[in-house]
Design brief:
single chain, 121 residues, alpha/beta, 5 helices, 47% helix
Length: 121
């Protein structure tokens, strides 16, 4: 599974990409540091799934996901955010997210959600 990792914090993004790249059946297809970059990278690398933060300075994760889904409606987006409350989760899922996890979720759980999202979509 080819995954695009989107987060505006470079250290977190690199750490997540590094961890995902150690998983046997996951390839990190690209990284993006913001919502606008995520839209461009999604078009360029054509990932099988996207892991995306919500809070980014240029375009938030929900709006970026909507733009990505306009061109690639079948690409699952899993939101990984520090702002994990019920209202935010509901808004993300209603906007088209395939999964929603709080930052701090273990790698194994993230991989499970990514696989479930990819199989569903």
């Amino acid at each position: 599974m080819r995954v695009l990792v989107v987060d505006d914090h470079p250290a977190f993004r690199r750490a997540l990409s590094s961890a995902l790249s150690m998983v046997d059946d996951i390839e990190v297809a690209g990284e993006a540091g913001g919502g606008l970059d995520a839209c461009a990278q999604a078009e360029r690398v054509r990932p099988d799934a996207i892991v995306m933060d919500l809070s980014m300075p240029d375009l938030d994760g929900i709006d970026a996901m909507r733009r990505i889904h306009e061109r690639s409606p079948d690409v699952p987006v899993v939101i990984l955010t520090a702002h994990a409350d019920e209202g935010t989760e509901r808004a993300a899922l209603e906007a088209g997210a395939s999964g929603f996890l709080p930052k701090g979720t273990g790698l194994q759980d993230l991989v499970i959600v990514l696989h479930e999202a990819a199989e569903t979509d």
